[in-house]
Amino acid sequence: MHDYVIVGAGSAGCVLASRLSEDPSIRVLLLEAGGEDRKREIQIPAAFGKLFQTEVDWNYRTEPQPQLAGRSLYWPRGKLLGGSSSMNAQMWVRGNPIDYDEWAQLGNPGWSYRDTLPYFRRAEDCQEGASEHTGAGGPMGVSALRSPNPLTHAFMEACVQAGIPLNPRINPSSQEGSYYTQVSQRRGVRCSTAGAYLRPAMKRPNLEVRTLAHATGIVVKQGRAMGIRYLQGGIEKTAEARREVLLCGGAVNSPQLLLLSGIGPAEELAALGIPVVANVPGVGRNLLDHLMVAVIMGVRRPITLLAAETPVNLLKFLLLRKGMLTSNVAEAHAFVRSAPQLSAPDLELVWAPYPYINHGLTRPTGHGMTISAVLLRPRSSGRLTLRSPHPMEPPRIDPRYLSDPADLELLVAGVRRAQEVFRAPALAREETIPIEPEPGTGADLPTFIRQKAETLYHPVGTCRMGVDEGAVVDPELRVRGLAGLRVVDASVMPTLIRGHTNAPTIMIAERAADLLRQAS
User: At residue 351, what are phi and psi to the nearest 5 degrees?
Assistant: First the structure.
């Protein structure tokens, strides 16, 4: 028997497995539905798109979205050691301090920015060119881009020309402005939680990792989680936990496993014939995600990342860890306010010196560049529900994008801002004919957004942290109504941050490790 059973070896699960196993008296079992992180493309930063819709991807799709022309959107999620940290675009963005202060104000003590900052810094290891605000000595390498594309500097110059200042210090307290993206890399190679946290910890005799182990249910006896049922090699097995079961499956898999185990809205569970173990109405609700719209333009000069796969660039990467293949594709970004009276940015412009079409799955016909307008604080929220009581069937994912009309208005403003940056002299001199139909103006923009908007891969909130009846976990991440069960991943975020979700998820796991130590 193990002291802790962790479900999911993703961004949070690898952190927990590493930190908890630092105590040699504690036995830890980590279960991962996917396999090893051995594919070559995982280590090559620019190759992350080649992992989409492969065996290392859960390859989820949303329900058809009425406000997005009835489209079903593709949601890639990592199904391997490291989870999505092994296949994301490596953007290391903490978010705005007021986001975390809001978490605390919602009744979650210990989650303000002042409280969480030490855990960000504990995770970080400042590498070449990283911000002076980055922590040092942690497992996650955080660096500046090694070989930024010449067009990326042109983007930042265009931002200044369009009234968006440079923010070279990348100071979270003054988030507004543009600069090169900080990335989770070491010497031009991806730094995932599998490589940074788990691989060194696997040398410890008190940590066991089982891959290809698909969790199917939580074992609950007399109101306490006692272990996990899982399938491995077609055989159903059980892993018992002496202390606690820790769910780290993310905003899709953690609520799904709770629901499959009879933990969720009683009426929904009963309708599927699932015995109710605990009536927790909030499970699967409060689904939030960053929606983005890409504006793509062609360029005259053949210097974009379309040329990344040439033999010369491959040699640069293999021999020097430099060149186009070290790019995370999203090489720069800008945080902007849609109105001057706002206290913090509500839009992000993500820049790529590459025509990023259909999640990078569609091969471009020519060189191009992309500015994606991102809705940072959507008012629309959705929910996740079970499609059936069968654990191998994916759940229903319904983000209800743009169900609040204010979100569409704000995305219109974001697309217009992206167009302003493209029209600035520094980029205007690079443009040719748009690779995709260019968004129009006025009445055309809402139609363009409904037809082209996609996820930025940041679902959160489906096991929301809080103290009210709709919360799923309390501020110490314990599931309501049950003992010995916590959720530790992006699903516990009560609101979406003005940033990207990988760094905050790692922070959550770092803090959870301390909470578990204090409870033992």
Answer: -105, 135
Non-local CB neighbours of 334 within 8 Å, separated by 6+ positions: 159, 164, 177, 178, 348, 349, 351, 421
Catalytic residue among 2, 367, 458, 500: 458
CB atoms within 10 A of CB 276: 15
Instruction: Write out residues in the chain with pLDDT < 50, as ranges.
Output: none
pLDDT at 169: 72
The alpha carbons of the chain give a radius of gyration, in whole angstroms, of 22
Report the pLDDT value the prediction gives residue 317, as an integer from 0 to 100. Answer: 96
Element (H, E) at 470: none
How deeply is 456 buried, as exposed, middle or buried, from its count of CB atoms within 10 A (0-12, 13-18, 19+)? buried
Query: Measured between alpha carbons, how far is 381 from 402 in angstroms, rounded to an integer?
Result: 9
| Alpha helices in 212-300, H assignment, sequence order | 250-260, 266-271
pLDDT at 43: 97
Do residues 149 and 353 touch, judged by C-beta distance below 8 A? yes
338: nearest Cα among 402, 403, 415: 415
CA distances from 162 to 5, 169, 293 (A): 52, 20, 19
- Residues 157, 158, 162, 164: is their CA dihedral positive or negative? negative
Question: CA 171 → CA 132, 161, 288, 428, distances in Å?
Answer: 8, 21, 26, 29
The pLDDT value recorded for residue 299 is 93
Q: What pLDDT is attached to residue 131? A: 84
Q: What is the pLDDT of residue 442?
A: 62
- Do 129 and 331 meet the contact criterion of CB atoms below 8 Å apart? no
Residue type, 74: Y
State pLDDT tens for residues 208-231.
999 999 999 999 999 999 999 999
Cα(64)–Cα(357) distance, rounded to whole angstroms? 20
Tokens of 162: 């369009």
Reading the block at residue 406, the tokens are 């204010």
Task: Kindly tell me the number of DSSP H helices and DSSP E strands found in the chain.
Answer: 14, 23
Rounded to 5 degrees, φ, ψ at 62 are -80, 165
Q: How far apart are CA 187 and CA 201, in angstroms?
A: 22
Nearest-angstrom CA–CA distance, 231 and 325:
37
CA separation for the pair 225, 221 (Å, rounded): 7
**Which residues are bridge partners to 221 per DSSP?**
224
User: Is residue 390 annotated as part of the catalytic site, yes or no?
Assistant: no
Rounded-to-integer distance, Cα 251 and Cα 159, Å: 34
Instruction: Report the pLDDT value the prediction gives residue 428, as an integer from 0 to 100.
Output: 93
CB 400 within 8 A of CB 380: yes
Looking at residue 88, its amino acid is N
d(C-alpha 12, C-alpha 247), whole Å: 9
